[in-house]
Structure formats: C-alpha cells, structure tokens
Structure prediction request, 206 residues.
Amino acid sequence: MKLAVFDFDSTLMDGETIDFLAAPLGLEEQVAAITERAMAGELDFFKSLIARVALLEGLEKSKVDAICADLPMMPGAEEVVAGLKEKGYKVVCFSGGFRNATSPAAKRLGIDADFSNILHDDGGILSGRVGGDMMFGFSKGDMLLRLQNLLGIDRADTIAVGDGANDLSMFEYADTRIAFCAKPILKEAATHIVDTKDLREILKIV
Prediction:
C-alpha cells in the first residue's frame, strides 16, 4: 500500500474555500489578503484561521453548504485521484479549510478520507468560531505521521502535494514532495514542481 496526500484549497480545488464564503458578506478582498499572507508563510496559520473565520460570523450554514457544493475542482482532479488509485495508492485530503467543502469533494472525486476543520454554527448561523483536525501549521505533518503509523506506510511510499506554507509540515514525512502552482516557500522544500494548473501532470512524476 502507498499513500498520496493532497491539500484541498488551491490544489484539489481551484481557489480558497474561505474566500468564496466571504464573498456574500462583501469581505472577499479582506479575507483573501489574510489568506495570501498565511499561505506565503508570513502569518501564523492558527491566528490567521481564527481571524478569517471570525469575519464569517452571521453567515447562514445553508448558504455555506450551497457554496461548498459548487466549488470548482482543479483541472485534472478526478483523473489524478483515479490514476493514483490504479497504481495502488490510498488518496487522502488534508485541509486547513472546512469539512463542508472537503467531504462532498472527497465523495465526488473518490478520495478515501478527508481531514479538515468544522465551522461552528448556532441555530444554523455561523458563530465565527472553528475547530477540528487542521488548526495549526504543524497539523498536516502530525496527521500524516499518524496515518503512516496506522497503515504501515513509510515515507518512501508517500506522496504529498500542496501549494502553501501550511503544507510544509506534511512535506517533512514524504519522500515525494510536489509543489503545485505553489508559493516560493513550498517550492524550496519540494522534490518536484508543477506550475501548470493541471493535476494530471502529477501522474507523469509517479
């Protein structure tokens, strides 16, 4: 068995979930600016996540789910998941974003498991609070190591694919590290760089 772990926002999905959620509140530019700095490694991921989610307070959960059900997948997303599974990989999604988005996408793409965060709501209205599996800059690496131990998979049989600074921690535990349309900080830690917005390019590396 082998393991392929993908980031979600701007990797499997073409964009940032939280930016799409901020749009109905007229806060897209404000949230996007914080996201950009966090992904570049200029801000602590936990602090940036808390600050961005706080801005979503008052948004209806039904609206969140509707937006998340219609997010654009990255070109080649379905093909790369299917191609890796054919090669014997378990395919997993790690996201500093939200389960509202990752769970339907995982089902759509045939991904084996998704680990992400949960937006807290009070009576169907977002409270501006968040909790979950991927709250910190180290969370993806921590979860990857636990999955490797659970499944008996070593780093030589592990692929990690991401685009931003919060993907650095999972790169620490994978011998194949693919920076996909990524920030410079992640490219420096990568073994392979894909600058074309087509996930099928990854199948050429594996």
